[in-house]
Task: inverse folding
């Protein structure tokens, strides 16, 4: 009788199983500072604070590679999503189109520099650096090599994640589309599809990335 | 009786969430997290002071943001500058009620609600308004969640300014309110980030 093929085991599996999204032994609720034991909580999928119901951890063991895969896909999609035209507009024989990076440049030329910088950060720089760092951190965990910059990367990753606002930008595209519908012909251009796919990657990457696990990987390296 | 981490002399790292022992004595010396090397403290330092400063600045900037023109749509030489509110009204009048509602919520309702909620939370901590801690925490999470959606109007301006740039036939220009509004959004984000919700729960322990 044929033996079922063993699942190919990558070397990082040993580390990934000891580093978990659940904090070791004790944790404090970020919102109300309640001290909590986490020893007997390993089987719960999600941990909530009993006093204020804050989400403490979310175990998604079934999908431990999704964040890494999503980060790499996001990086591949990034350049077309930022440079390709998002909407086409035509009116009285004249045409216009816009892309993410054009929008920033146009504002800069209209001497709205502060606004241009803010939009550059929220719609281009933060998503790019967030994906880059998520992929780098994922790679570090898989190669089990943790450079000294690793803690700084994790902190930057967090900061960039909070400033990446492409989902709001997508809503802005919809509002702009509807707003211009009556004045001329508006059409969706290829950039929108790339942007939607990039957005999906960012959401998946956020959903499955566990910060606590990434920190525990770093801790175990320093202890070893 | 519930026990907080601070009762046991444990501080939660703001950057990596690790608990570590933080002695109350010799306060001059800053302790650093053993895992990520960030400075440790029991509560965000000067949380209320920073929150008040950001909130007041944002409230003042709401005035230019709402009364100065934010967007001018010129087509065939005609068009007036629009403020945020007149833009919403125009959208509503041109049978685009849904979009008008989205823009109204994102640009007017969200910033104002955020400021009201932050002021309320800070008053709960400072004057001990008798409000439920659970509900205050829910409000705190709510302002964190909705804050970023105020950026909608700014992104829309960036899209329209680039898309409709056709010289005399049609042109969209941004106005001075855009920068003021951007400042309001960023300042309210800062205000929400510097407020420490654990201060609400500390009221039960004193």
Result:
């Amino acid at each position: 009788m044929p033996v079922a093929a063993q699942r190919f085991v990558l070397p990082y599996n040993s580390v990934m199983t000891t580093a978990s999204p659940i904090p070791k032994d004790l944790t404090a609720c970020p919102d109300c500072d309640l001290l909590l034991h986490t020893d007997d909580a390993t089987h719960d999928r999600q941990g909530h604070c009993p006093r204020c119901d804050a989400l403490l951890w979310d175990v998604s063991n079934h999908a431990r590679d999704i964040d890494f895969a999503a980060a790499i896909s996001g990086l591949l999609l990034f350049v077309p999503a930022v440079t390709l035209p998002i909407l086409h507009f035509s009116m009285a024989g004249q045409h216009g189109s816009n892309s993410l990076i054009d929008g920033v440049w146009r504002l800069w030329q209209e001497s709205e520099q502060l606004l241009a910088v803010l939009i550059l950060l929220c719609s281009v720089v933060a998503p790019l650096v967030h994906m880059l760092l998520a992929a780098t951190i994922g790679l570090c965990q898989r190669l089990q090599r943790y450079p000294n910059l690793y803690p700084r990367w994790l902190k930057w990753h967090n900061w960039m994640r909070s400033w990446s606002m492409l989902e709001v930008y997508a809503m802005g595209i919809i509002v702009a589309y509807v707003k211009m519908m009556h004045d001329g012909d508006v059409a969706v251009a290829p950039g929108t599809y790339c942007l939607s796919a990039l957005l999906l990657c960012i959401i998946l990457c956020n959903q499955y990335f566990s910060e606590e696990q990434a920190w525990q990987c770093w801790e175990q390296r320093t202890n070893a | 009786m519930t026990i907080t981490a601070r009762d046991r002399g444990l501080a939660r790292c703001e950057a990596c969430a690790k608990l570590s022992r933080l002695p109350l004595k010799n306060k001059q010396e800053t302790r650093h997290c053993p895992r990520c090397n960030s400075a440790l403290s029991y509560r965000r330092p000067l949380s209320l002071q920073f929150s008040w400063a950001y909130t007041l600045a944002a409230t003042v900037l709401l005035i230019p943001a709402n009364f100065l023109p934010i967007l001018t749509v010129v087509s065939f030489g005609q068009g007036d500058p629009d403020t945020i509110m007149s833009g919403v009204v125009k959208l509503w009048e041109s049978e685009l009620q849904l979009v008008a509602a989205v823009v109204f919520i994102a640009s007017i309702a969200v910033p104002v609600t955020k400021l009201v909620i932050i002021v309320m939370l800070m008053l709960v901590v400072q004057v001990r308004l008798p409000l439920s801690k659970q509900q205050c925490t829910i409000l705190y999470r709510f302002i964190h969640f909705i804050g970023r959606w105020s950026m909608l109007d700014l992104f829309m301006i960036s899209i329209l300014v680039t898309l409709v740039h056709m010289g005399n036939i049609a042109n969209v220009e941004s106005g001075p309110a855009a920068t003021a509004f951007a400042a309001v959004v960023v300042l309210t984000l800062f205000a929400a980030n510097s407020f420490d919700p654990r201060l609400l729960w500390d009221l039960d322990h004193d």
